[in-house]
Design brief:
The protein has 332 residues and is of the alpha/beta class. The chain has 12 helices and 12 strands.
Length: 332
């Protein structure tokens, strides 16, 4: 696996990472199996997918507990990224950026992860009731205390930015400018994929110009770009795609030309190359500071995702993928 260096702290990770959220959050709970997820994490580390991306809210808490079972045995093989700042209630999610809470949450994450240091601690969302500089200052103190190696920021949610009529990542860049005055940002995590390329406009260049790593979340479009989902098949009620406007039967059918385009490019590279691998290779080609973080809970998909690291897309391929139809089914 190719190694990429992110942030001023020169953190080295595999070019492809592992998003652990599907193992215990946001996707169909009936298909979540602990033993299967543990095998997927071990397989990822075996293949050099060193970045394990989690958050305390996934579960909540159970995702970190699951990873802790692996880290107890293989901490030196992994680069651990977890997040703070969101609390899960019965029917809602709220932000909490109070400095005292951030420090307690970090200690709790360390216990669950069975480690004495978090490689990358990310602010999941800023608390509108707390100046982001105060939250970030508390996180910086965790670095100084040796509990955290580097800090990262997750991009502000897409829906709010689109409704306001501003560029999608304007709010995130404003937050980044503020927290950079307190302590260096090593990485930014935001959605980037063939069907959600908006980060290319401003956020990705902003990070590159400042030596900040970019963690590409949802690089496979929540599974759509793999070509394995059938329009109209439906999703379980607890699956976030059941409420996503791009995952209605109508929109999934309308967006099939995107998958067809990925298949055409894949076919030029061999019969065993998949649309998912082309989609990941396209993301990796957007910059040396980009790390793709596809989420999965199965060994099979971990192995397939890892192989994307060896897929070298030509200039023709990249142009063709970038020119695929824009996805239909927006948040508006």
């Amino acid at each position: 696996m190719e190694r990429r260096t992110i942030g001023a702290a020169a953190l080295a990770v595999g070019a492809v990472g592992l998003g652990c959220m599907p193992m215990s959050w946001a996707y169909s709970t009936s298909r979540q199996r602990g033993d299967e997820s543990l095998r997927a994490v071990h397989r990822a580390l075996d293949l050099g997918l060193t970045l394990l991306d989690t958050a305390d809210m996934y579960g909540p808490f159970t995702n970190e507990l699951l990873l802790g079972r692996v880290l107890k045995e293989r901490r030196s093989d992994a680069f651990v990224s977890t997040k703070v700042g969101l609390l899960v209630g019965e029917q809602h999610i709220v932000a909490n950026g109070r400095p005292g809470y951030v420090k307690r949450a970090c200690d709790a994450s360390l216990r669950r992860l069975q480690t004495d240091v978090i490689d990358l601690y990310q602010l999941h969302r800023a608390d509108p009731e707390v100046p982001v500089e105060e939250t970030w200052g508390a996180m910086a103190e965790l670095v100084q205390a040796g509990k955290v190696r580097a800090l990262g920021l997750c991009a502000v949610g897409a829906r709010g930015g689109r409704r306001s009529g501003t560029l999608l990542h304007d709010a995130t860049i404003r937050q980044l400018q503020r927290v950079q005055q307190v302590f260096p940002v090593s990485a930014v995590e935001a959605e980037l994929s063939v069907w959600s390329p908006e980060a290319l406009d401003t956020l990705l260049p902003w990070c590159e110009a400042r030596g900040i790593g970019f963690l590409a979340a949802m690089p496979l479009g929540n599974g759509f770009l793999t070509g394995t989902l059938t329009p109209g098949e439906g999703f379980e009620p607890d699956d976030m795609r059941a409420r996503h406007p791009r995952f209605t039967a109508e929109m999934m059918a309308a967006n099939q030309p995107i998958v067809a385009g990925l298949r055409r490019v894949a076919a030029r590279h061999g019969e065993h190359v998949t649309p998912a691998q082309v989609a990941l290779a396209w993301v990796l080609a957007q910059g040396r500071h980009v790390v793709a973080v596809p989420g999965t809970k199965r060994e099979r998909w971990v192995t397939e995702n890892a192989d994307a690291d060896r897929l070298c897309l030509s200039a023709r391929d990249l142009t063709e993928v970038s020119g695929l139809p824009r996805a239909q089914g927006s948040w508006e």
